[in-house]
Structure formats: structure tokens, C-alpha cells
Design goal:
Largest sheet: none
Number of domains: 1
Distance between the termini: 50 Å
Bound molecules: phenylalanine
CATH topology: Amino acid/polyamine transporter I
Number of strands: 0
CATH architecture: Up-down Bundle
Order of helices and strands: HHHHHHHHHHHHHHHHH
Structural class: mainly alpha
Radius of gyration: 21 Å
Number of helices: 17
Shape: globular
Length: 450
């Protein structure tokens, strides 16, 4: 199949292949690593509710909008907007997406590298000899402070990402998702049972599920929204790109519901693994990015066959992280391939190298660059905050305005209904995309400003 530029593009082989790949992009470190730690920093239950509200009210309609633009044009985000509104400035959504992809991937690979390292450390039994929970945290802290180890694992994760994206869409991506998705859900359920049966677990459950709205600030609302965009891979054209490889036969509405449902399930399960263990070990939920890596060894060490369980867990998490990182690199690469006519291998390797270099200060942010401040944050936090809390919601709101008011919900509806039966909830969707999504993002930005 060729697109307007005569470039060959892959297509998903099966319906399930597409849903799994889009869910693969969505489910990743955002659900398993970031969601628990920012929930911990933002007061627990009330933050979880805000996050769910953003994911359902803003995330679902924007995801459907992105799939629709992608399938309509069969192009990368820049090309897609140029095709739908030639010569207009809307193409800026596409460029912002490429930039956001670049920034996010630069620190995503650092955390992906932690996962690779923890597979190695599980296998050589470094993770099952902690005398008490504090030791596990101390071990992780000294690991992430080591510049050589950090850069090495950052490079390994980037190399793995580049290797998969080399192969193009379905060769690499579809296969990886088939195994990872169900596997990750199963192992999280097993860990959840262990965690919930630890002494003192209920205090953690209460923190996680009982909403205390007194703890909500403008900043936590912004973070809840940023997290909804981040976990669902929205606001930067990843889902436009994935939708562009989609054939006409797919049902876009039900695919959207599956992808969002599965991602939320994994995030919520991750919280149910982490918080009971945090209260059992008498740790602080506000610890930050190291929370999950410090807490999990405590759960593993109280299970039969800890080495096996922790290795399997980190392998699955690595695959989940890779199916997300490849979608980030794919957005950047698809732009160079489609728009600038680079060869796939050149686009992927050159951009992989550039993003690796950009990630080095993030890799050093827990050690040698710990005290360097960028607008009051470490480099790692600064890039994450800029991309996840600002660029993604802004990109998403612009996409919503574009589809709702410029391209038009009627055109989008036609695309959704092209090969499938009726688009049932079209009025509700149109209302969410035209009014709710843009207003919610604008209001949250303003609230944060004042
Ligand atoms: N959704 C991915 C995760 O949660 C991260 C991601 C963000 C991927 C944006 C693509 C685009 O891990």
C-alpha cells in the first residue's frame, strides 16, 4: 500500500494487532513507574480520581480524533495536517509532536535503562539480599547516582528501541505486543495479591483509594491531566502515526475504548501493588521517581522464587517500555521518512543517536547533576514537566480544536463510518472534542498560572 508520496507503508496484519500495538504504545513506564510515584507525590486517592476524569473525558475523545486523522491521511502528523489543511499553520501540531517525541524519548530511555539493569541485577541475585526495606531504597539510590552505569543502560535501551524500529511497523511492533500485554496484566495481579496480604497493607490501600480533596492543588490537577496524555500517548501524534498504518476495515471507536480501558487497568493495578507495600515497609509515598524501583524488591523478597518473579516482571516491563519507546521514535522517524524523504534506516539511526545525546543530562540527574537546577527542577524533571505537562496537553487541545472546529466533526464522522456501521455516540464525542477538551486544558493551564 502506498500513500500520497508513493512511499510504501506497513499495515497492521490483524485488528487485534492494531489494538495491541496502540495499547502497547500506551501501556508502559507511564502506567507502571510514573503513575504510582506521582500519585504518591500528589496525595493519593483524589489524584487518582482526577486522572481518571481526564483520561475518560479528554483522553478518549482525543484518541479517537487522532486515530481518525491518521487513518484518513495515512501520513505522519506533519504530513497529515498539511494534507487536511494545506498551507495553514495547523501543521504546527505536527512539529510540536515531533519535538515532544524527541524530548520524551530522551528521558524515557533513561528509565527504560533502569529496567534493563534490574533484569541483570535480578539474575545475579543483587535484589534478594536486602536485610530491610530501607536497604532496597539505598541500593537503588546508589545505582542511579553512578554516571557510567546510567549512561551504559541508557545506551542499551536506546539501541534496543532503534533495533525494533529498524524493522518497521508490523515486523517488530506487533509481535512484541502479543506476548507482553497479557503477561504484564497477569504478573501485576499476582504481585497485587502478595502486596495486599502484607501486614499493614490496608493503610496504603486507604491512601491510594480514599480521596482527600484537601490535598489537591492547581499543580496536581495539571499533573493529572499531563499524566492522562502521557499514559495514553496523546497530544503528540503517536496515535495519528499508528492510525496511519491502519487499514480501512478497523472499528475506530471500539479500538479506542479497548486501548484506554486496558491502559487504565494496568495503571490502577500498579498502584495496588505499590501502595500496600509502601505502608508495609513504612516508607514515604512521596519519594518520587525512585519509588517503584525501591519498593518492588520488598514485594519480591516475600514471595516464593523471588529471582524468577523479579526477572519475569522486569522483562515484561522492559517489553512494555519498548513498545512505548518505539512509538515515540516512530513519530520522529516517520517525519524524516515521509517529509524529508530519508531512508528508514538513516532516519532511525541518526535520530536515535541525537536523542541518546539529549538524554545524557537526564541520565546524570540523580548523581553528578543532582544539584543543577532548571527552573527549580533537575534536568530530568524539567524535560518531563515541559513535555508531559505542557506540550502534550497543548498538542491535544489543538488537535481537539482542529478536529472539532476546522476539519469538522462531520468529516471525522465520515471517516469513522467509512467501513463500519454507525458511529453511535457521535453527539457526545463532538461535544467533548469541541468544548470539553479545549476548555479543560485551557482552564487547567490558567489555574496553574494564577
Ligand atoms: N504512553 C507511554 C507510557 O505510558 C509513553 C508515551 C507517551 C508513548 C507519548 C508515546 C507517546 O509509558
Amino acid at each position: 500500500m502506498t500513500n500520497g508520496n508513493g512511499n510504501h507503508r506497513g499495515f497492521w496484519k490483524t485488528r487485534l494487532g492494531f489494538v495491541l500495538a496502540a495499547a502497547g504504545s500506551a501501556v508502559g513506564l507511564g502506567s507502571v513507574w510514573k503513575f504510582p510515584y506521582i500519585t504518591g507525590q500528589n496525595g493519593g486517592g483524589a489524584f487518582v480520581l482526577l486522572y481518571l476524569a481526564c483520561a475518560l473525558g479528554v483522553g478518549i475523545p482525543i484518541m479517537l480524533a487522532e486515530f481518525t486523522i491518521g487513518r484518513k491521511t495515512n501520513l505522519n502528523p506533519v504530513g497529515a495536517l498539511q494534507t487536511l489543511r494545506p498551507g495553514s499553520w495547523w501543521v504546527v501540531i505536527g512539529y510540536m509532536g515531533v519535538l515532544a517525541g524527541l524530548l520524551i524519548l530522551s528521558y524515557y530511555c533513561v528509565v527504560g535503562g533502569w529496567t534493563v539493569a534490574y533484569i541483570v541485577k535480578s539474575l545475579n541475585h543483587s535484589l534478594d539480599r536486602f536485610a530491610n526495606p530501607r536497604e532496597a531504597g539505598g541500593y537503588f539510590a546508589s545505582f542511579i547516582a553512578d554516571p557510567l552505569e546510567m549512561i551504559f543502560y541508557h545506551a542499551v535501551f536506546m539501541a534496543l528501541t532503534v533495533a525494533v524500529v529498524f524493522k518497521g511497523v508490523h515486523g517488530g511492533i506487533e509481535k512484541a505486543c502479543d506476548v507482553m500485554m497479557p503477561g504484564l496484566a497477569v504478573i501485576l495481579c499476582v504481585l497485587m495479591v502478595r502486596s495486599l496480604t502484607l501486614p499493614g497493607a490496608m493503610e496504603g490501600v486507604k491512601f491510594y483509594l480514599y480521596p482527600d480533596f484537601g490535598k489537591i492543588t492547581a499543580k496536581s490537577v495539571l499533573m493529572a491531566m499531563g499524566q492522562a496524555f502521557f499514559t495514553l500517548s496523546l497530544g503528540m501524534g503517536a496515535m495519528i502515526t499508528y492510525g496511519s498504518y491502519l487499514s480501512e476495515k478497523e472499528n475506530l471507536t471500539s479500538s479506542t475504548v479497548y486501548v484506554v480501558g486496558f491502559t487504565l487497568l494496568i495503571s490502577l493495578l500498579a498502584g495496588l501493588v505499590i501502595f500496600p507495600a509502601v505502608s508495609f515497609a513504612k516508607l514515604e509515598p512521596t519519594e518520587g521517581p525512585s519509588l517503584v524501583f525501591s519498593v518492588l524488591p520488598i514485594v519480591f523478597s516475600r514471595m516464593p522464587l523471588p529471582t524468577l518473579v523479579s526477572t519475569v516482571f522486569f522483562v515484561l516491563l522492559l517489553i512494555a517500555a519498548l513498545t512505548s519507546s518505539i512509538s515515540l521514535l516512530e513519530v520522529v522517524a516517520a517525519y524524516f521518512i515521509d517529509q524529508l524523504k530519508w531512508k528508514r534506516k538513516k532516519a532511525v539511526s541518526v535520530m536515535g543517536a541525537v536523542i541518546f545525546l539529549l538524554g545524557i543530562p537526564s541520565a546524570l540527574s540523580f548523581g553528578v547533576m543532582k544539584d543543577a537546577r532548571f527552573m527549580g527542577m533537575t534536568f530530568f524533571e524539567f524535560v518531563d514537566n515541559l513535555a508531559a505537562n505542557y506540550l502534550l496537553p497543548l498538542g491535544g487541545a489543538l488537535t481537539a480544536i482542529f478536529v472539532g472546529w476546522v476539519w469538522g466533526t462531520k468529516e471525522a464522522q465520515k471517516e469513522v463510518e467509512r467501513h463500519e456501521t454507525q458511529f453511535h455516540f457521535v453527539e457526545i464525542w463532538a461535544f467533548l472534542i469541541r468544548f470539553v477538551a479545549p476548555v479543560a486544558v485551557a482552564a487547567i493551564f490558567l489555574a496553574k498560572l494564577f
